Amino acid sequence: MKKILVLALVVLLALTAVFANGGSESAAADSGKSYTIKLGHTMSTEHPRHKALLEFEKYVEEKSAGKIQVELFPAGILGSEPDMQESMRMGTLEAFVGGPFDTISKKLNLFLMPFFFDDQEALMRVAKDEKVFNIISSDAEANGLKILAIGDGGARQITNSKRRITKPADMKGLKLRTPSIEAIMVCMDTLGASTVSIPLADCYMSLKTGVADGQENPVATIYDQKLYEVQKYITYVNYQYHPEVMTMNASFFNSLPADYQKILSDAAWLFIETENKIALDNAEARLEEMKAYGCDIYTPTPEEKQAFIDACAPVYDHFVNKLKYFSQEELDLVKSLAQGK
What gap in Å lies between CA 89 and CA 86, rounded to an integer? Predict the structure, then answer.
């Protein structure tokens, strides 16, 4: 009888400890197990991405009381974006920020349609929409990846060393370096340029040596990678707004206690909010510095920009009807959100 009473007391104490910690998942988080998250990206430590990731690191480590340690690997230390993405998929790298997007989720191309967003606010209406986020994140999980948050990766501009670009016809004959992102290559081809896919780490030298005449990137990247040193002409046209995607190995994320998952999700959105603000705050100053360096920065008139918009119209049909990366219904949903309807 005494043994039964002792056993009952032990069970009662164990259950009390579990419920005092908010259930079995919270108890697992308090069990003393620690985790290390290695997170890679290709930008320098001065880029808005890395500065915002420092806030992500701080938040995660503080909220987990040090049970989750974040190790940041900037500037392509761990390889190119496709290399890091594959390492993450294989489980040797826990997290990553960047593209290419097709191998995360083809649905991310919904963000990449040319001249789709007027500004960062329009992009974030789409990024924060629960239905759109679930469409994209479900597709990513089928690829073994967990999307933690989506933000503003920057409005993309076109640069070159040959001539000022004011209309689509000016693109003809130019060889432009692009990342291996289908939507960019299709846009440039549609506008009349030829494309060559070169890793970002090799972009500066390819432009300097004439392997490519130009390239396209957000202002933050043009500045961060010092591409303006080897590009005379910058057309400030905002032809695409790319998503900034923080992804994690899905198996790793799903293995974490629920409260740790929430910490990471909250930290990811903090990262997005921080980077969005830094990028906006820095953009004008970066343009002025590049202008002072000697770059010719041209902003097309509304009529000139409309000519680019009209020229890129076939890109939409290419993704809906030829590649079938997303449906017309999904495209219409995103377009409606982007326009604030």
Answer: 5
Q: Spell 185-200 as b/e; 16+ CB within 10 A means b.
A: bbbbbbbebebeebbb
d(CA 160, CA 144): 38
Collapse the DSSP code of 100 into the 3-class scheme (helix H, G, I; strand E, B; otherwise coil) and give the result: coil
Within 8 A by CB and 6+ apart from 81, the residues are 42, 96, 98, 99, 100, 179, 199, 200
Q: Residue 237: what are its φ and ψ, rounded to 5°?
A: -120, -10
Q: Cβ distance 317 to 114 under 8 Å?
A: no
- Which has more confidence, 267 or 32? 267
Among residues 72, 41, 42, 45, the alpha carbon closest in space to that of 56 is found at 72
The full set of domains in the chain, from first to last, is 33-338 (3.40.190.170)
- How many whole angstroms separate alpha carbon 141 and alpha carbon 243? 18
Q: In angstroms, rounded to a whole number, what is the distance separating the alpha carbons of residues 198 and 174?
A: 15
Per-residue pLDDT reduced to its tens digit, 78-116: 999 999 999 999 999 999 999 899 999 999 999 999 999
Instruction: Give the other-Cβ count within 10 Å of 209's Cβ.
Output: 9
Q: Could you tell me which of 75, 46, 50 has the C-alpha nearest to residue 204?
A: 75
> In this predicted model, what pLDDT tens digit does every residue of 218-269 receive, in sequence order?
999 999 999 999 999 999 999 999 999 999 999 999 999 999 999 999 999 9
CA–centroid distance for 134 within its chain = 16
Q: Which two tokens stand for residue 90?
A: 């294989």
Per-residue pLDDT band for 32 (boundaries 50, 70, 90) equals confident
15-19, 81-85, 242-246, 274-278: segment of lowest average pLDDT: 15-19
Work out the angle between the directed axes of helices 182-191 and 302-311 (0-180°, nearest 10): 110
What gap in Å lies between CA 212 and CA 314, rounded to an integer? 25
